[in-house]
Sequence to fold (134 residues):
Amino acid sequence: MKGEYRQKAAKAARTAVLLLGVAVLCACKQPPDERVTTQASAEERGLAAIRQAGCGACHEIAGIDWPRGRAGPSLMGFDDRTPIAGVLPNTPANLAAFIRNAPAAVPGSTMPPMPVTEREARDIAAYLYSRPDN
Ligand code: HEC
Fold:
């Protein structure tokens, strides 16, 4: 009787060790989505930043269904040819600077400074340039 109990206990212990091993293996395996999140492209991060900053409140923007504000010009079909706000040479650096602080980049601009980081502004610029045909 005692021997049988010990055998059962030993078996339970082995099972526990096995389960622990499986659990550790599972824990090490990357969740399927992680790769996508951490290596999101600049454009993907840009779209997320646009959503977060609420640019859609004043602009019509590709990929943002709501809101589609009208206080600012539509950004559909924004490309690198037309000067930014009609005056600023259209380069990625100028666009990022304008997005962060429009009145500083273009004195008299009526777009308010936006609470985005430099990197977010660059990502947003990448997103806007990547949607020339919308
Ligand atoms: C409160 C309203 C408002 C918000 C919010 C806003 N904008 Fe603007 N935006 C404007 C206005 C108004 C203009 C026109 C300003 C000018 O011509 O100087 C403008 C102009 C622009 C332009 C230049 C467009 C062109 O055709 O040259 C870009 C690019 C732009 N905004 C991007 C953004 C981005 C990106 C965000 C979010 C981070 C944003 N805006 C948030 C009001 C807004």
About this structure: The chain has six helices and no strands. The two ends are 78 Å apart (CA to CA). The pocket of heme C is lined by residues 50, 53-55, 57-59, 71-73, 75, 84-85, 99, 102, 106, 109-112, 114, 116, 124 (CB under 6 Å). The chain has two domains: 1-30, 40-129.
